[in-house]
Amino acid sequence: MPFLFENYCLDADRRELRRGSELIAIGPKVFDLLLFLVQNREQVVTRDDLLQAVWDGRIVSESTLTSHINAVRKAIGDTGRDQRLIRTVSRKGIRFVGKIEDLELPANIPVTTSDIAGEKLTPVLALPNSPSIAVLPFRNLSGNVEQDYFADGVVEDIITALSRIRWLFVIARNSSFTYKGRTVDEKQVGRELGVRYVAEGSVRQSESRIRITGQLVDATTGTHLWAERFEGTLDDIFELQDQITTSIVGAIASQLERAEIERARRKPTGSLSAYDNYLRAMPHLHRGTREAIDNALPLFYEAMQLDPEFASAHAMAAWCHFWRKINGWMADRPQEIAEGVRLARLAVELGKDDAVALTRGGHALAHLAGEVDGGIALIDKALVLNPNLAAAWFLGGFLRTVRGDPDAAIEFFTRAMRFSPLDPEMFRMQAGLALSHLFAGRFDAASSWGEQSFREAPTFLAVVAIIAASHALAGRTEQARTAVEHLWTLDPTFRIASLQGWIPIRRPEHLARFETGLRLAGLPE
User: Fold this and answer.
1) How far is Cα 509 from Cα 349, in angstroms, rounded to an integer?
2) Topology of domain 132-265, CATH
3) How far is Cα 421 from Cα 411, in angstroms, rounded to an integer?
4) 21, 84, 144, 349: which one has the fewest Cβ atoms less than 10 Å from its Cβ?
5) How far is CA 337 from the centre of its chain?
6) SS3 assignment for 327-353
7) How many other β-carbons are positioned within 10 Å of the β-carbon of residue 194?
8) DSSP state of 43
9) Cα separation of 427 and 450, whole Å?
10) Quick one: DSSP state of residue 138?
């Protein structure tokens, strides 16, 4: 039953505190404390009463109790000096002294949550065409109301970061935070906000350490798609907040893409939209075999035909042409390179604010048109738009490698792998690390990363060449020759001279090192 005092409404059923039409965000313990005081307003409430009712008899410090009482007062516009609504009784306890009106509704009027809140009943919202998500306020499990700001800050940062992803429909912070302090059902949240996915989590502090858990739920079915735990110290709480935000956003974005791809795969073929074609193509692009790319390209072209301004579809098609080039699969090399360049230029023109289009389009231009510096600039812009896009980090790493800065590139690859530790393109990240270590003269590390990539993608021509060169430069002649033999099965025409124009390697010493390694491995000129 709601309680009215001054211009406030405390609704026990909905676990909401409102001032007029404004919803006041308060933590669950603060809400419980206020509700207990209001319900027991006829008497002075002792410290033991509060511990028993609000903390289930658990002993908490005096400062924790005081901070919660202060938070209650702040939420209802009271202070310890004014004591207009909550009065301290010396050596006894506290008491709620405001005048309460019980909100009684006529018996013939059905009670609904919307009626009580004074709102009109709203129809169920239709799901947007694009993937949609609401990030709910994280629960503060620390027993310390002072940590609310940290949890709220993390969630606000997550919402802001997800909002930069153009293909994603994100519920605004003000709507998400109406659920603060409430026990929610994810399916109901999905219906009320009109979203397919709901992200939620909790924060717990123990001394100088803090632990955050996050999970992603398909609100249409209630299925849990992802859950993870993040930990850190409070030495620099704002740096920790940034680290946790980037980790959670990277994980959520990756899982959302996978969930949407899987959903598109289950759709009947007759009802495809541009975005569905795009999603159906993505697993093929991730797989990276010749047959998979042959399957992906027509789907991207179909997406472009259905939506000529679909920047990401143009970019992915251009990237498929790059992938065909680097693996020696082009049937008409000049024509396909020209087509890839055309698509990439269209992608970055149409997608000036699309991080995915800028990333794949920029990378394709670097390889197909030799515009390495321009490609890096486009990917750097993509990272400004979406600093959590794993593909931008690892493709930006590749371009920094070929431009001549392998150590900087390794940092990019490492960050990409941290953002998306289960990424279907992990073999590409591993290959990038292998190439960086080869150029840096660390041949054991190069062959190790190359072998890891090869296990997932044995038809990736570049990684086989890297393995051959790094083994040879490390003196492992037999392993190098085995790699060269496999290289010839993939492309019998591949020679030392093939490196010119194959990968846009800028520094002569890096190109010479690659050539020397392949020469030692037995590859002819």
Assistant:
1) 35
2) Rossmann fold (3.40.50)
3) 15
4) 21
5) 33
6) CCCCCCHHHHHHHHHHHHHHHHHHCCC
7) 18
8) S
9) 9
10) P
Q: What residues contact 280, with CB distance under 8 A and at least 6 apart?
A: 261, 264, 265, 272, 299
Separation between Cα atoms, residue 70 and residue 78, nearest integer Å: 9
Cα dist from 418 to 165, 178, 248, 415, whole Å: 19, 32, 11, 5
How far is 468 from 476, CA to CA, in rounded Å? 9
Same fold, 132-265 and 268-387: no
Domain range list for the chain: 2-116, 132-265, 268-387, 398-525
Class of domain 2-116: mainly alpha
CATH code for the structural domain at 398-525:
1.25.40.10
> Tens-of-pLDDT digits for all 525 residues of the chain?
678 888 788 887 677 888 776 778 777 788 888 999 998 988 899 888 888 888 777 777 777 788 888 889 988 988 888 888 999 988 888 999 988 865 443 333 333 333 333 333 334 567 776 788 889 988 888 776 666 667 777 787 788 777 777 677 888 776 788 888 888 888 888 888 888 889 888 888 777 778 888 888 888 888 888 888 877 776 666 676 677 777 777 777 777 777 777 766 655 444 457 777 887 888 889 889 999 999 999 999 998 888 888 888 999 999 999 999 999 999 899 999 999 999 999 999 988 888 889 999 999 999 999 999 999 999 999 988 887 778 899 999 999 999 999 999 999 998 888 767 667 888 999 999 999 999 999 999 999 999 999 998 999 999 999 999 999 999 999 999 999 999 999 999 989 888 888 899 999 999 999 999 999 999 888
Q: How far is CA 387 from CA 9, 20, 152, in A?
A: 41, 39, 20
DSSP-assigned letter for residue 273: -
CA distance linking residue 208 with residue 149, whole number of Å: 16
| Count of residues making up the chain | 525
d(CA 436, CA 400): 9
Distance CA 193, CA 198 (A): 10
What is the full DSSP assignment across 170-228?
Answer: E--HHHHGGGTT----HHHHHHHHT-SEEEEEEEEEETTEEEEEEEEEETTTTEEEEEE
| Residue linked to tokens 């700001």 | 149
How far, in Å, are 251, 357, 389, 403, 507 from residue 385 at the CA level? 17, 11, 9, 23, 30
Query: For 405, which DSSP code?
Result: -
Residues β-bridged to residue 212: 203, 230
Give the three-class secondary structure for 140. strand
Q: Report the distance separating Cα 205 and Cα 198, nearest Å.
A: 24
Q: Are 1 and 9 in contact (CB under 8 A)?
A: no
